[in-house]
Input
Amino acid sequence: MTKYVTAMLVLVVAVLAVALFVRGGEVLTALAISTTNSTVATVNITASQTVCSPTVCYDADDATDTIHLQGGDQRYVKCNTTCNAPNGWGYIRNYTGAIGTSGADCTPSSNLDCYRNASCQNFSVVNTTAQLVQCTYLFWFNADNTTEVGTWTGNIKAGDIGGSTSPTSSDTIGLSTLLAIGVEGVLAFNSQTAATNETTNTHQHNIYNYGNVEIDFKVNGTAMTCQSGSIAAEYLKANLTSGGNYQASYSLTSALSGPDTGGKFGSTNLAKSSTTSGAPVVNNKVTYWGIGIPAGVSGNCESTIWFAAVLS
Output
């Protein structure tokens, strides 16, 4: 009896031992048993490309799609776009812009045909991934146009911290012909003696081309009104040579006409101003004037002379 009982106890112990180490048909060891366990998950997230909406360029002073240059001065032109960076707009490093006549990203050799902006403005935040971008340019008065209304192309790109650049966003804008002439304010003949004519033209007067095309100029004037009497317009004569013969020079009239009529004045052609960088070097023409004084006039005399620019 004792032996039987002992054998049964051994058998129970053996069964319990198997129950501890066999679970679901899988043999476990004491070291593999745990209430928790883990594994590592990995993924490689690549940056999505920034994309900018179509650019819109306009004359900032009158909000039109044609640039109206300012004679002898500068004109603001702006180009806007909205750039969307799926990784967040903080991922953008910079915005760059260019506007030129070439239709592609221009390389400025002068202000005649290309302007660049290496730090366009983050104008406003649209949302967490998008920004309104604005590139501003100051156009000089001599910017090129190839026809009556030339075409310039504005481009904007976004560069990100990963070194990638967005596709170019572009727009075209017209640029008008500018006819603009500048003259000195006073043509002073100083003191003269009545009933005499000057023999040579020595009174210098400068005329400037403040437009973006080559021009000729026309001129007319009124009689000089004096404290006593008057001096007819034709007593004022001009040419392009300092000390040139007064009698053989061009006589001012009340009708607007080209001073080179009959070859008495000389060429009135004025080339457009040019520049390689910065402010333009303005082209000018120096004219020389003389005056005749009829009998019967005295005191201070004054008249008005008009100069008009025309296409060459």
The longest helix spans residues 2-21. Helices lie at 2-21. The first strand starts at residue 22 and ends at 23.
